Amino acid sequence: MTSDIRLAQLLSSRICHDLVGPAGALGNGIELLKEVGNDAEVIELIIASAGRLMRQLDFFRLAFGLRGGVDTIVGWDEANRLAAGLIENSAITFDWKSGNQDSGDEIAGSGTGSGNAAPSAVVRLVLCLVLVAVGALPRRGVVGVRVNSTGDAHANGGFDVSVSAKGERLSLDEDVATSLTTPIDVGDLTARNAHAYFAACLARSLDSVIGVTRGEEDALVFSVHVSGAH
Fold first, then answer.
1. Nearest one of 85, 76, 138, 146 to 113, comparing CA atoms
2. Which class for 25: exposed (0-12), middle (13-18), buried (19 or more C-beta within 10 A)?
3. For residue 51, how many C-alpha atoms fall within 13 Å in the half-sphere facing its CB?
4. CATH number of the domain where residue 54 is located
5. What's the total number of domains in the chain?
6. CA angle 140-142-146, nearest 5°?
7. Which end of the chain is more exposed for a tag (fewer CB within 10 A), N or C?
8. How confident is the model at residue 111 (pLDDT cuts 50, 70, 90)?
9. For residue range 191-213, what is the model confidence (pLDDT) as tens digits?
């Protein structure tokens, strides 16, 4: 079996594993609604489960897929929205800041102008690192994202990216850490570390590598420097 096929299978397993919770809750809510009728609490459960399911689908669609079958330029505001949606209504809080190193200004607003966007491979890499950071927080904590742009996404601008995780019982599984930083054999891939391996593949496609360090207050920090647009 080729590594591409195995990776696709394992990522599909990971996605299904994450979606089965809200999908199951949605189905249970519909069945309960049939039994009890127009109940406000049941309707609220259905709405919450449907919202969670849609947010996760939106996140995975960009993190692991090619929307429309083509690579595109993606706005950082959209990436921010998708990452925040992944952990909405959880015990994890989200802190995203992006800016332009040349001007020192924080990037605000939408669109795909200079500094406001990046090639989709760069954005996918950031989202995959967010997923790794969330997985390192079994209880409560904070996931932080810092993106500094050094130019125009449509030209040869580069990006300095760091994604951090800080919180109670912070722990990064050894196989996940290894998949991020070291080329591994396809036979060592599992549904638990496939997203980290995919992140490493994305980094290599951008002529970069992922660094894993301990930051301030014992936070885990995943960092990448992308030298130019790809």
1. 76
2. middle
3. 10
4. 3.30.565.10
5. 1
6. 165
7. N
8. very low
9. 899 999 999 999 999 999 999 99
Helix (H) or strand (E) run with residue 164 in it: strand 159-167
Q: How far is CA 155 from CA 53, 113, 227, 228, in A?
A: 36, 11, 12, 8
Q: How far apart are the first and last CA of the chain?
A: 29
- 99-124 burial, b if ≥16 CB within 10 A, otherwise e? bbeeeeeebeeeebebbbbbbbbbbb
Domain that holds residue 56: 3-226
Residue 130 CA from chain centroid, whole number: 4
Distance between CA 170 and CA 212 in Å, rounded? 14
| C-beta of residue 84 within 8 angstroms of C-beta of residue 95 | no
- pLDDT tens digit sequence for 12-32: 999 999 999 999 999 999 998
- Whether 89 has a pLDDT exceeding 90, the answer reads no
Q: Which residue has the tokens 């990216």?
A: 161
Q: What is the mean pLDDT of the chain?
A: 85
pTM > 0.85: yes
Task: Report CA torsion sign: 117, 120, 122, 126.
Answer: positive
